[in-house]
Amino acid sequence: METQENKVIFSAIQPTGTFTLGNYIGAVRNWVNIQDEYRCIYAIADLHAITVKQEPAKLRQHTLEAFALLMACGIDPEKSVMFIQSHNKCHAEMNWILSCSAQFGELSRMTQFKAKSEKHPDDINAGLFTYPVLMAGDILLYQADLVPIGDDQKQHLELARNIAQRFNQKYGELFKIPDPYIPKVGARIKSLQDPTKKMSKSDENPNSCILILDDKDTVIRKFKRAVTDSDTVVRYAEGKDGINNLMSIYSAVTGKGYDEIEREFEGKGYGDFKLAVGEAVADSLEPVRTKFAELMNDKAYLKEVYTNGVQAAERISRKTMTKAYRKVGFVDCP
Ligand code: TRP
């Protein structure tokens, strides 16, 4: 039996500017929590980012920021391997090998491809189409056991499993088949303006979304404006999407259960509750903002961390890459 410590976790996040509170509570905070339990490998997926239009200077900036943000949130380069995807050439190489095992039909069925094609009808590039193959390579290169992902990536992980199985059947066992990692505690954070939708930084209404670098006043102001309902009691119930969302946020940052929160705000109004949520969130983000500013002021240190990171990533993934080349029948690279 394998112990958990030997289990490999791989995940990646795209460098699309600052993260939202949703990314933080729903994903990154969880990545931080599992660092002691597993062998974690985390990447900034800049190769993925160029499947949609990017301004080069901004992409570079956002990639560095995303890397610093992961560290500011608590990803510890002493515990986890963290790197920038494009630095490790294995990802682009594996993408090609796996694209010869991925089928046109299955890629055509990816709902994210269909959605993004509709959103960018003037740039339905081949990279957008094969994006899930690149993602499969990310995971399979490290022989990951588990992949923490949101609902929007489930179909891609399923595809990665299918591609891995198909390759293994064609050429003999190579890839470990990864499973989704379902966190013990995980909250899906919704928009503050329309709590039936996911919190998203691409929302036109900036009040719908908390960015993890928002300052205290901004955080509190956005929570004050959060949409609730015509009831007045703070309790978790069906039909109270706004309050439910605020309760799950408050619970995620304070660790308090719903019963406890209901008792805390008994006899108080929504105004008091919103203010408390805003303050709790702002307080929990404060150290992240401070650490982030420190890191962005020390580019030499950041560079040292991502240099060491890619060396570690390369050591692991090059082994799989070399095996894959042998399996498909390439002559050993001189
Ligand atoms: N596609 C993922 C997203 O947009 C990011 C990603 C890239 C990823 N490679 C991955 C996630 C590998 C998990 C595993 O959110």
Structure explained in plain terms:
With 334 residues, the chain is mainly alpha-helical. The protein has 13 helices and five strands. The strands form two sheets. Strands 1-2-3 form a three-stranded parallel β-sheet. Strand 1, helix 1 (21-33) and strand 2 (39-44) form a beta-alpha-beta unit. The protein is globular and about 75 Å long. Bound molecules: tryptophan (TRP).
In brief, what are we looking at here?
The protein has 334 residues and is mainly α. The chain has helices spanning 21-33, 46-49, 56-73, 90-99, 104-108, 111-119, 126-141, 154-171, 216-224, 241-254, 258-264, 270-296, 299-328; strands at residues 8-13, 39-44, 81-84, 146-148, 179-181. The mean pLDDT is 95.
What are the defining features of this structure?
single chain; 334 residues; mainly alpha; Rossmann fold; Tyrosyl-Transfer RNA Synthetase; three-stranded parallel β-sheet; two-stranded parallel ribbon; 5 strands; globular; binds tryptophan
The structure class reads mainly alpha
How far apart are the first and last residues' alpha carbons, in Å? Answer: 38 Å
Major sheet strand order: 1-2-3
Order of SSEs, N→C?
Answer: EHEHHEHHHHEHEHHHHH
Major β-sheet profile: 3 strands, parallel
Total separate domains? 2
Summed over residues and divided by their number, the pLDDT gives a mean of 95
Q: Report helical residue fraction.
A: 40-55%
